[in-house]
Amino acid sequence: MSYDPQNIFAKILRGEIPCHKVFEDERVLSFMDIMPRSKGHLLVIPKAEARNLLDIAPDDLAALVQRVQRIAIAVKNALDADGITLQQFSESAGGQEVFHLHFHVLPRWDGVRITPHPAPKGDMAELADTAARIRAELGA
Question: Cα separation of 73 and 58, whole Å?
């Protein structure tokens, strides 16, 4: 399968669809998931056109994973979470629904279950506030 430049994350990268941005540099964009499965659930995507983990260039993947780690640490600290769940799905059989490589970063608290998929749409004001808290932790 080939990369579809009309996927929703490509449109977000081009600014055609708004998002609650958490972090951006020359290699990645991170933004709040609008259907959060936990408070602070966000996505980290490469700017490179990559359908999933199976087709991304190794140097783009290395840059992406470095940013995922930095952002996950900031999420944990900003939200005083007890841990982090990291998810990445590749191809339909692997659970992928949007065919642009992305990592889900879900903050977790002891004894609190994540919302089942699909989660309801989040409160936009709360997402904006949470994004600001994480940006502050990142120093962005």
Answer: 23
Rounded to two decimals, the pTM is 0.97
Letter string b/e over residues 47-64, b meaning 16 or more CB atoms within 10 A of that residue's CB = bbbbbbbeebeeebbebb
- Sequence length of the chain is 140
Q: Which of 20, 102, 104, 117 is catalytic?
A: 102
What is the average per-residue pLDDT within 1-15? 97
Write out the CATH class of domain 8-138. Answer: alpha beta
The Cα–Cα gap between 108 and 119 comes to 16
The domain spans of the chain are: 8-138
For 17: left if phi > 0, alpha if psi spans -120 to 50, otherwise beta; the answer is: beta
> Can 102 be counted among the known catalytic residues?
yes
**Alpha carbon separation from 4 to 39, 70, 90 (Å, rounded):** 30, 28, 15
